[in-house]
Design brief:
This protein is an alpha+beta fold. It contains five helices and seven strands. The protein is 19% helix and 35% strand. It has a seven-stranded mixed sheet with strand order 5-4-6-3-2-1-7.
């Protein structure tokens, strides 16, 4: 074996790992017959930041919040610059609550909460008007894509591992 190959050999695992991270699929969900690419917020820090300080949310995109357990949820729009639909889903991924056309709020801690009214574990935020356009009603089913159902990636891919344990069956 020549010297160049010997020098590159220790880098092989790193190259394979970075290749796997780059080839990871973008998380997505399906709702009302439409697919949305989503960012997954599955730990306290990500859930707290949410879509704050964003100037826009691209069409066909959203943010999926995954909580550790099903319980009443309440979201607010503190420092959120874009109007949103906030959709609440239970453990079985059924729509149990929705807050449509929630306006941006720059009032800091005086921003009002938008409750789920029923226990929820998953919360999907989409651009305002999507729930109406899709004709969503209570009981609508959310489908999680493979990357959405397993949101924790290797630390080498830029995300810490956590304790997420998916309950429902996913595609």
């Amino acid at each position: 074996m020549n010297l160049t190959r010997l020098c590159l050999l220790p880098l092989l695992p790193l190259l394979l790992l970075s290749s796997a991270c780059a080839s990871g699929k973008t998380p997505w969900v399906e709702l009302g017959g439409e697919r949305f690419e989503v960012e997954v917020a599955d730990d306290d820090a990500e859930r707290a930041r949410g879509l704050m300080f964003r100037d826009a949310l691209a069409p066909g995109h959203g943010m999926l919040f995954i909580h550790d357990r099903q319980e009443p949820q309440a979201y607010w729009m503190k420092n959120t610059k874009i109007p949103l639909d906030i959709l609440y889903f239970d453990n079985e991924l059924r729509l149990v609550g929705q807050q449509r056309n929630v306006p941006p709020c720059s009032a800091g801690d005086r921003c009002p909460p938008y409750p789920s009214h029923r226990p929820a574990r998953y919360v999907l935020e989409l651009n305002a008007g999507q729930a109406a356009r899709l004709g969503l009603e209570a009981g609508a089913t959310l489908t999680l894509g493979p990357a959405s159902s397993r949101p924790h990636r290797s630390p080498a891919c830029g995300r810490p591992r956590g304790s997420f344990k998916p309950q429902p069956t996913f595609l």
